[in-house]
Fold:
Amino acid sequence: MGGTEMIDIILPALLLNFAAVTGTMVRRAGYENISQVSQILSVPLILGGILAGFAAIYASVAAEGWLTGLAIWFVSGLILAAVASAIRTRWDGILSILASVSLLAGAYLFFIRFV
Structure:
């Protein structure tokens, strides 16, 4: 698989994985512990994050095979969770906006590549 094809598959997986991680963080934070922007975006992020998680797994496995694809998905999820956690401590609303943009961009790139 060429480098361009790999980027076409992994980029949507990373964007969707970021949206999934952030959706999980918003859900775990509780409705009263998040900013107003995050409250507004919480339902789309949670529902979109669930679908994005499965799409990210699919894209990672399609790019690298079962074992390597799941390892890439898992490790990138841990790294993105650390990044999202660091952003959330200071800029909760900005994190929700970034995750929403990531969800839309990742879904768009995923559908271009796989549908």
The radius of gyration is 14 Å. Residues 36-64 form the longest helix (29 residues).
